[in-house]
Amino acid sequence: MVPDEAAGAPQAFCTVDLDAIRENVAALRGRAGAAELMAVVKADGYGHGLVPAAGAALDGGATSLGVSVLAEAFALRAAGVTVPVFAWLAAPGADFRRAIAEHVDVAAYSVEQLAEISAAAAACGAPAAVHLKADTGMWRGGATRNDWPELVAAARRAERDGLVEVAGVWSHLACADEPGHPGTARQLAAFAEAVDVARRAGLRPRQCHIANSAATLTLPESRFDLVRPGLAIYGLDPLVPGHDVPGPRLRPAMTLAARVAQTKRAPAGVGVSYGHRYTTTRPTTLAVVPLGYADGVPRAVGEQGRVLLSGRIHPVAGRVCMDQFMVDVGDGVVARGDTVVLYGPGDRGEPTALDWAQAAGTIAYEILTRVGSRVERIYRGERSRG
Ligand SMILES: *Cc1c(COP(=O)(O)O)cnc(C)c1O
């Protein structure tokens, strides 16, 4: 999937297969049983584009959208998205009044934050839809077991005052990507207890939710009313290497590619790129690829990086620069303008984002979300939404 070679064609491009997102969401829905699916489209849809990713996920059967910060939720509303949107991370001073006005669900992590949301609701004259966050053992955001009864009681009072409507109770799993990790069972038990405490305090949350991609795929008991997959909707395996994802195959939606800017023959024994960390061992052809760490190509990849170029896999030669890197193609026949694929779905033999993640000592999430704004997104499988 590359654009036609034509004048004005981009020199580096990130192709996004929206049909893959639709099909991945449909497959995940099939695994989620009766639970609804909230598609997580934070961080510009994991680099795939916020609005196109959201549209494809809704086509695939998602019934709501999850984002991190309010600005992402407002961008969805500005694009005409009317389905429920939940934004779960806000520092003090966030624009909760606008969230209420635009029907964006928000999270309350603490009594203080709930008070801030309630004040915004009072100013708006309309209740805020709030999901109370329980910290069930990740020690990230949310109320700990000790603080939970107080948060729940405050939410019940705010509900009686007409300032909030507790739409959900939720949490997040720390170790679901390692199936069998004992921390997950502990968190699920703590979550069930938190839900119970909320109900006994008189709250009636419609949506209890804790499952990310890994839990959606591997832990039926984590699904509750709603699942919140992110990475899997973009087609990447969320489990740590060595664990196979059960069920239907997911298809990576993103392909990162560029056109070779120059090729040249080099003799044996020359040092390539900054620091001369790579030395040619034979006469060889080097290809210059116009993508660098400013575009999200991880500098840490070193020589473990691999690309597909003229039908073969070749290694990255030397350090990745800000805007470009070199590939050692040996005696391969490669011309200026040829398409070099860094990663994609893998069905033409190209590496995947997971391969790049492993080569760079990171996770596929970081590879996808770091593709820079300089790289043009090209969409396949677009449908007119109207
Ligand atoms: C990012 C995120 C998700 C999605 O996680 P994946 O591992 O990508 O499925 C779900 N919930 C919360 C709170 C998140 O921050």
Describe this entry's structure for a reader.
- Helix 1 crosses helix 3 (50-59).
- With 386 residues, the protein is of the alpha/beta class.
- 28% of the residues lie in helices and 23% in strands.
- The strands form 3 sheets. A 9-stranded mixed β-sheet has the order 11-14-17-16-15-18-10-1-19.
- It binds pyridoxal-5'-phosphate.
- Pyridoxal-5'-phosphate binds next to loops.
- Belongs to the alanine racemase family.
Brief account:
With 386 residues, the chain is of the alpha/beta class. It has helices spanning 18-31, 42-46, 50-59, 70-78, 96-101, 111-124, 148-160, 182-200, 213-218, 353-360, 364-369; strands at 12-17, 36-40, 64-67, 85-87, 104-108, 128-133, 164-170, 207-211, 226-227, 254-259, 262-266, 271-272, 278-279, 284-289, 306-309, 312-317, 325-330, 339-343, 376-380.
